[in-house]
Each structure stands twice: as structure tokens, then as C-alpha cells.
Specification:
Blueprint lengths: L14 H31 L8 H4 L6 H24 L2 H27 L1 H17 L5 H13 L58 H4 L8 H11 L1 H48 L3 H6 L19 H5 L14
Helix pairs in contact: 1-3, 3-4, 4-9
Length: 329
């Protein structure tokens, strides 16, 4: 409208999204570094750092791997998101988005495959637990993890107590000299609420008894079945946790991509402004040409006595503009 000036707002990087992404990732970064430090400390205590081959000697899962892998991934993601947001670095922000997107799709694919191939997953879980049962006494961290799982889910072995025949200390062969022969770990035992001191020998010789008699001393259900039952009973909570994690990942990706778009818009606007500045201030206009033409700068071009413009007016930028010729009238 006439008489009113239209104001155009130039693109800028949103401070709220930038510093929210920075704050979120710095917490993520610190937690990842803490997990990684705990994992490396645990390996140092077990002498793994001085003997790397010990990583492959263990037949089962070393729980420290969980801390190292999760801590490493969190540290890398936190670093990329934190520094990328603070320094407005599009490369780090894109790396953060792509890496987080890959993790999201990997989780999604794992969930779909686990739902479709339930029987195969169950068999693999049985095999995984049995491999760790074999290595129960080989690593203290693995031993504590198995004991925790058996106590939490009130189970024993993958399918039942007889799975402990796979362990050289608990098998029932006549050649086994161990005192734990035909027994199970204390974590399989049915705890007495009135018992103040933990009886670590409660599982000795228990598998020599009949199955009905065993039920009064130990848990006879397998951990795979108990885990499936726990998932069914807590399906809403488990689904809510996974959906919450997925939403956080999607939110982080969108926030990083939005920040990248803002940075690109500001750069494009700056480039356009720079080009306009060069064209406006470095390109000679007609009035600038006439101002260097001589004392008769207000005369009409072609009037008698008009001195020709100097070459400086037209060749001051490296000869980009041709020298005009003026004829006397």
C-alpha cells in the first residue's frame, strides 16, 4: 500500500532449537563418556586392556561390551550434535541426523523381524543363554548378570535346570570332581523371606532329586519362557519405552535438519547480499562516470567543450567496462 513500508525479515538461525539441541546432546555426550569410562575401567580391572586377546577367549557375553558399545555410540552422537549445533557446522549436524536415522531404522527392522520370526528368535535366545551358561564361571561380570536374570525372572537355565549340565562345574557326569556337581547356582533357589543371610550352597545336589521335589528348592521354569511371560505382562510399558525412544530420535533428527536448513538459508542470504553489495558499490553508475568527466560534469553529454571521461572511471575494476567515446556536437 502507498505510504507504508513493507519490512522483510531476513532468515536467521533459531536460538531456541539451536541451544535445545546443544543442551540435549551435551547431556547425551556426558552420559556416553561415563558409560565408556566405566567399560574401560572394568576391562582394566580384569586385565583385558593389557591382553586384548582375552576379549575372544570368553565363550559367552562379556557385559562390559554393552557399556563400551553404548557409551561409544552415545559419545559420538553427543559430540556431533553438541559441536554441530554450537558451531553451526552443517557437516556434523548431517552426520548426527544420518547416524541417528540409521539407529532408528535398525531398531525398527529388529522389532519387525522379531515379531515375524518369533520361533527363530526363541531358538537363538535359547542358544545364546546356553552359551553363557557354559561360561558362567569364566567371567565374574557374566556370572553376576546371569544371577540377576535368574533371580529377577524366577527361572533357572534357558529351558530349565537341566541346562546347567552344559557347565563343567555343574554337570552330573561321574568324571566331574566339583562340589557343585548336579547342582545349580544359588540364583536358581527359591528364597526364604525370613532368611537374613544368603545361602550360596542351596543349589548343591538339587538335581539329584525328583522334579517334584526340586520345585520346593529351586525354580524349575526356563528363563526364555519367563522372559516371554514378562514381556506379555508388561507389553504396554515396554512398548511405551520403545515409542518414547523412537520419538526422541525422530525429534532429534527433525531438530538437526531444521537447524541445517536455517544455516543454509542464512548462508544463501549472505551470499546474495554480498553479490548485491559488489554490484551496487563496485560497479560504476552513470553519475559516477559523469563525476569524473571533468569540470563540466553537469553538462549534457555531447555539449561543446565536454571533456571525455577518464579511463579510470571505466577501467578501475580491471577493464570490465568498455571505454565510451564522446563526439562534440
Amino acid at each position: 500500500m502507498p505510504g507504508k513500508h513493507q519490512h522483510f525479515q531476513e532468515p536467521e538461525v533459531g536460538c531456541c532449537g539451536k541451544y535445545f539441541l546443544f543442551g540435549f546432546n551435551i547431556v547425551f555426550w556426558v552420559l556416553g563418556a561415563l558409560f565408556l569410562a566405566i567399560g574401560l575401567w572394568a576391562w582394566g580391572e580384569k586385565g583385558v586392556l593389557s591382553n586384548i586377546s582375552a576379549l575372544t577367549d570368553l565363550g559367552g557375553l562379556d557385559p562390559v561390551w554393552l557399556f563400551v558399545v553404548v557409551g561409544g555410540v552415545m559419545s559420538v552422537l553427543g559430540f556431533a550434535g553438541c559441536i554441530g549445533a554450537l558451531r553451526e557446522n552443517t557437516f556434523l549436524l548431517k552426520f548426527f541426523s544420518v547416524f541417528l536415522g540409521l539407529i532408528f531404522f535398525l531398531e525398527l527392522a529388529t522389532g519387525i523381524l522379531a515379531f515375524v520370526f518369533k520361533d527363530w528368535i526363541r531358538d537363538q535366545l535359547n542358544l545364546f543363554i546356553n552359551n553363557n551358561v557354559k561360561a558362567y564361571r569364566d567371567d565374574i561380570d557374566l556370572q553376576n548378570l546371569i544371577d540377576f536374570a535368574q533371580e529377577y525372572w524366577s527361572c533357572c537355565g534357558a529351558r530349565g535346570p537341566n541346562d546347567w549340565n552344559l557347565n563343567i562345574y555343574f554337570n552330573c557326569t561321574d568324571l566331574n570332581p566339583s562340589r557343585e556337581r548336579c547342582g545349580v547356582p544359588f540364583s536358581c533357589c527359591v528364597r526364604d523371606p525370613a532368611e537374613d543371610v544368603l545361602n550360596t550352597q542351596c543349589g548343591y545336589d538339587v538335581r539329584l532329586k525328583l522334579e517334584l521335589e526340586q520345585q520346593g528348592f529351586i525354580h524349575t521354569k526356563g528363563c526364555v519362557g519367563q522372559f516371554e511371560k514378562w514381556l506379555q505382562d508388561n507389553l504396554i510399558v515396554v512398548a511405551g519405552v520403545f515409542v518414547g525412544i523412537a520419538l526422541l530420535q525422530i525429534f532429534g533428527i527433525c531438530l538437526a535438519q531444521n537447524l541445517v536448513s536455517d544455516i543454509k538459508a542464512v548462508k544463501a542470504n549472505w551470499s546474495k547480499w554480498n553479490d548485491d553489495f559488489e554490484n551496487h558499490w563496485l560497479t560504476p553508475t552513470v553519475s559516477e562516470v559523469l563525476s569524473t568527466a571533468g569540470p563540466q560534469q553537469n553538462s549534457v553529454i555531447g555539449a561543446p567543450g565536454l571533456a571525455p571521461p577518464s579511463r579510470h572511471a571505466f577501467f578501475g575494476l580491471g577493464g570490465l567496462y568498455p571505454e565510451p567515446t564522446f563526439k562534440n556536437w
